[in-house]
Structure formats: C-alpha cells, structure tokens
Amino acid sequence: MDPSLIVYALNLSAIYALMAIGISLLWSSIGMLNMAHGASFAVAGYGALVISGAVFPWLKGLLGGTVLLPYVQVVVLLGAGVGVGALFGVLIYLLAFLPIHDKANFAVRGMIVTLAINLATVQALLWWFGPRQQSLPNVFGFGRLTVLGLPVRYDQAVTITATVLMLGAVLWWLKASRKGLEIRAMMQNAEGAALSGISVRRTALPVMAVTGAMAGAAAVLLSQTVYVSPGAGAMPLIKGMIIALLGGLGSVPGAVAAALLIGALEAATGAIPFLGQRMVLLVQFGFIIAVLIVRPRGLGGLLDETRK
Amino acid sequence: MTEPIAPVFHKVGNRRHEVVLSPDGASEWRRARVPGLRRHWLKWRGGYNPKTLERERRLADKRPLWWVLGLGALVVAVPFLPNSLVQVAAIFCIFAAINVVWTLIIGAAGILSLATMAVVGLAAYGAAAANVYLGVPWPLMFVVGAGIGLVVGGLLALPSTRIDGLYYALLTIGVAEICRVSISQIRALAPQNSSINNVGSFIPQDWYLQRPGLLLGFASAVGLLLAALLLFRLVNSERLGLLLQSAREDEEFSEAIGIDYKRARLHVFLISSAALGFIGAYYAIFYRSISLNVFSLDQLLLMFAMVVIGGLGRAEGAVIGTAIVVVIDRALIDLGPLRIILIAAVMIAVTLTTHRGLADVRAQFRAWRHRIRSERRATRTRKGGEVMPEEATEIADKQAIAYRRFDKRLRDRLKSLITPALIEEHRNAPLGPHSDDLARVLNYFRRGEMPDKYAILQDGPPHAWTYSVMALSGEPGKPPRVVDDKTYATRDEAYHAVFLLRVNDLLES
User: Fold this and answer.
1) B23-75 residue pLDDT tens
2) What is the pLDDT of residues A173-195, one digit of tens each?
3) Among partner residues A100, A115, A278, which is closest to B181 by beta-carbon distance?
4) Could A296 and B336 be called an inter-chain contact, meaning their C-beta atoms sit closer than 8 Å?
5) Yes or no: is domain B418-508 CATH 3.30.160?
6) Chain A: residue nearest B337 by CA?
7) DSSP characters for B443-485?
8) Which sequence spans correspond to the domains of chain B?
9) Is A292–B351 a contact, with Cβ atoms under 8 angstroms apart?
C-alpha cells in the first residue's frame, strides 16, 4: 500500500472530525441538528477569501521580505476563517435557536430553520460571488516533510496539527472551564441543568460560536486543496452528518473514531482501482448503514437516555 | 286601530353569515354514504335554533368545500392562461401529488424519510428504460414504475424499523445522492449525459409543447393529484390510518392493546412507495425524458420546503405549500437566485411563527385567541358578577345574562342605602315597622338563593332558649352548617346578627 495514503486518510479525517464534532456537540448540548453547518463552512471560506484579499497586500508592504510573513499570513487566514465561522454561528443562534428553543417541536423546527438558512446562504453566496470557484492564497507553501518515514505535504501537516490543537483546545475548554462544566451538565440532563440555574440561552451561544469556528477552521484548511465555491459546504455537511451519526450523536470520542474510520475508508476506496473516487460515497453509506443496523445508536451511543 | 308592527330580526353572533339549511322537520333525513364505506359524503349536523326552535342543519366540516373551490378554480382558470403558466400549473399538480404521498409517509406512518425523490427518480428511470430499451408500451410503464417503487420502498423500509427518527432522516438524505452517482456510472447512458429521452407518452408527438398537448398534460396531472388525494384519504382516514394514529399518540399503549403498529407503518410505507413509483413513471411520460436532475439535493430541499411550509402531516398542507413554492420558483423566474432566498425566507418565517405549518394556522390562532380571552375574562369577571360581553357569547341562556346584569345594578343601589343609621334602625326593631330603605334592603335579602341562606337555630331547655346562626346547604338531605360559635339570648338579637351577616355579604360582593 502506498504510505502517503495514510497521511491522506489522516488529513481527510481531521477535516471531517472538525465538522462532525461540531454537529455532534450541538446536538447533544442544545438538541439542535444544525443543517446550516455547511453554510458556516462556505461562508467562512468566503470570509477568509475576502479578508485575505484585503489584508495580504498591506501585510506584504509591512513585512515584505521578513521570515515572519508566511507565519503571520497563516494566522490571519485561519483567524479570518475561525472568526467568520463563529460570527455565522452566532447568526444561526439568533435566527434558529433563540426564537424557538423553548417552543413545541423544537428538534424538527430547528432542523427546518437551519436547512432554510443553508439554502438561503448558498444562494446568497452564488448571487454575490458568482458560481466561479476561487482559490484561497496558498500560505502553507508547496514543500514536503518526512515524518516517521512518511512524505507529508506542508498543508497536510498544518491541517493535521491545527485540527489536533483545535480539538484539544475545545475538549480542554469543555473539561476545565466553568462554561464547559455547564455545557456538560446540559448534555447529561438538560432539564436538570436548567433547574440548577444554568441558562440554556447563555450556554447555547458559546457552543454555537465554537462549533461555527470549527467549521470555519475546517473550511480554511480544506480550501488549501479544494476551491472555495458557494456549494462547497454541502459535501462536508453530509460527511460530517454521517460521521456524527456513525459516532453516535453527542459522543466526542465516537465522532473522532468515526472520522478516522471514514477518512481511512475514503482514502482506501479511492485507491482501489475498480471502485475509484466516484464510488466513495456509496461505499461510505453502505458502511454506515451496516454499522447503524448493528448498533442503532452509533459507535459511541452513550446518549441513549438523555436525547431521543 | 293601529297596525301591529312586524318584528325585525337582526342576525347576531360571530357566524351570522354562515349558511344554515332549514329542512322540513317532519320528513326523514336521508344522507348518501360513500359506496363501500359507512362514511357520509359531507359532515352535516342537525339541531334546533334555540330562539325560534326551528329545525336547522349546518355543515360541520367545511374542508371538502374548500378543496372543491380551490381545485375547481385551478381547473377553470388554466385553459385561459398562457402556455408557460399552464406548464407551471401542471408541475404544481405533479409536485403536489408527490408531496401528498410523501405526507402519508411522514405524517401517517411517522417515518421521516427524505428518500422520496430517490424513489420517484429510480422508478422514472426504470420505467423509461423499459419503454425505450425493452419496448414496453407506455400504459405498462405505470406498472413497471409502481413495481420498482415497491421494491425500492421495501429496501428503504428495512433499516427504518431498526434505526429511529432523525437518524433515518439524515441517512435518507444521502440516498438520492447515491442514486445520482450510481446512474451516472452507467456507460450505456453516458453519450446522452445520463438521461433517457424519447420516452413514449399519451401526449402525441406533434402535440408536444403545443397548446393542446400542454392542456392534455395538465388534465392528466390534475387526475394524478386527485388520485393521490384519494389514496391519502383511503390510507389516512381508514383502518390503517387509525391504527397509526394510536401509535403516534402512544406507542406502548397501542402495542399493549394489540396493535401491530410497526407492521401498519411498513404497509403504509410500501403503499406510498409504490404510489411514488407510479408518479415517477408518470413523470417520465409527462416530460418524455428523465435526467439526473431528479436526484439533485436542491430539488429535494425544494420539495422539503413545500412540505414544511404547508405543515408536516396534512394533505392540505402539502398542497398549499406546493402552491406557494411552485409559484415563487416557477412563476417568478425573473428573480434568479433571489427566489430561492425568498423561499427560504418564507420557510423560516413559517417555521418560526407556526407550530405545524400553514395548514394548522387556524387552529393555532384559535388556541391563541382562546387563551387571550380567558386571560381577559379572569381579570374582568370578578367585577360584581356581571357577565362581560366576551363571556356572554358562550352562555346559551340569555335570561341568565340579563338577570346577572339586573342583580348587579340592584346590589349597587342597595349598597348605597346601607348606613349606620339603617343598621341602628334594624337593631332597634328587627321585625318592623321599617323605613322604606330598610324594607328594600330586607326584601332583597329575602329572595336570596337557597344555598348559603342563613337560618336561626333555637336550642337549649324550654324558656331558657339560646339562638345561633346557621347556613342552609341548599341541597336536599345535606344538613345546614354552623356559621360561627356565637349564641344569642333573644330572638331579636339573632335576627339582627343574620342581618349583619347579610349586609356584610352584600358589601363584599
């Protein structure tokens, strides 16, 4: 087997994990299936494009020729994606969560509203930026490293590292901070948490912002290899959704394991000659349906009782 | 001698314009039943007018009327429309038929399946391929389509019993995408961009896209919609639908009383899938071709928008939502991408403001109005017991309203008569003679209602009697209750004590 396949699989897994954990976290903490996660992805990609277009010439004038420039560019690009993603998350919060979170039938209505936001956002992007695919400035360079004997492209290395760092930070925030404690309380028992004085609204806002930021990061990282386009969010959304399902909605370790599995499956399917890139989705779906028939709550499946 | 003045009756009330039949009370009431069923065609309810005591009959469920009016208006209007709008109307009918059947899956069976367009598309491809490559004549395409729909539905139903609700919905989103990818892999179709063209049709070749052809297509689409509505009615309101309704309300209970709701769900799913396959074959025949666009995610989302705007689970919702979305999407085509944004905005607005879509708006508005009314009533009816206007519409006996108004006014006047001098007058001479004011007050007290009317209990040995005050229960067989533990030495003192109690009650009311 081609050793670069492992790195390719890890790279895919990293981006899928960012999407899937966002979806999973939202579902388990506030009980909303965020179908606008793909829109967050696309908007963050365009946000990074616009901001980098505005800031990079100025940066070049300021730091032109110094060693710092590429690093600052990476930080600006990632920061732009993360920031725009978080802002879009707040927008979804204002539109889809705040008005109806305490009303009847919230799970389905929330899903419908976020689906509509997704639809509207994709069309708005299409209207504003046109259907043309655009590429983000390549800030990671084109070189290769060799890690443990495996050839790794720079962008793959940055993607994997950044994802691990970001997920680590989010998990640490969930584990160690006061807000994280509140969020975990809501995951375990939303009603109990509300009764012990945890405001659902105040807890949901940072969760939405953080998951939006994760989608934004995924957008910037993926856009180094794939172009930015209005419909770019659909595939990451579908993949993220099915990984979240496979991992068991609400289980972070499950989502990580599922992302690794699906990334590996995608890389392997693409490499097997008679299956090829076009059968990837089919194979993934078959796999997920098979797993779900055996384990209806996914790999993690720890939230059997709390969220139905 | 003066002529008697003929009384003038004014129509009053919330529904004074409602059509009410006044049948002949002496003859028998014959209502036709739907052949083969025990249902009546329309829900007429008979009764008597409370004022005139005349026999009357009104339509309790006016929805059939609205259906006839709406669809009838469409059928009447379309022949006068330009060609492009005739096509929009036909597309509306086809999509409405798909959505009505889909509503059966989502609403009646309670399976949130998003694989509708996948079933329609697969059946359309299968039927078209049978016609073009195997030479099956077009009437048999419907059979082929329904068969494919049944098989695909069976395959889709397999995981639905194991995987629940939202999980299943998310999985089925991907089914259409899988179909799209798989069909695009078929080499034989590659030269024509994976579409099948020149499918046989009931519309003659030289009428295609001409006025008569379009009208014929529209007529057949209306027929399709009516068939879908009939199917909805047959499944949803007959035995299967009732079994499933019990499961929707309480799964465990319905299982405990022996309803196999999983089986019923499966049956509905299979019936609906076969119907979707039928519609798929019609789709291919109507367009004379079928392309991969059927499977696109955008198409699925548009269909979902239609169902959601109308309200999940009701046939009228599916049709209303389809009408709104098709009009925005096809008739306002000049707006470009804006119209999808408009559809999304309508979707968000409807979802945020209504609980179950537009079809349910009336019930939701009524519940809201009822709540507001009862809140207002709670703040107002305590004022002296007079009936407030909004409460008055709900009291059938209008005499009671008049009496309560009179009583309140009388009490208001009597309250102004009660002065320390009056009380002193009664204390001095409980049995009279009374002044005019005191006589009025006492007369009011005398005709009080029997419940809680005061009485005097005479107790103790003869000639050393003591008196105390009791209140009558007003119910035969139920003894009076003691009001307080005071005893009085003379009967006059007891009379006065009762008087004071009544005055107290009057002033407090």
Assistant:
1) 887 888 888 888 888 888 888 888 888 778 888 888 888 888 999 999 999 99
2) 888 888 888 888 888 887 888 88
3) A278
4) no
5) yes
6) A123
7) HHHHT--STT-EEEEEESSTTS-EEEEEE--SSTTPPPEE--S
8) 89-295, 418-508
9) no
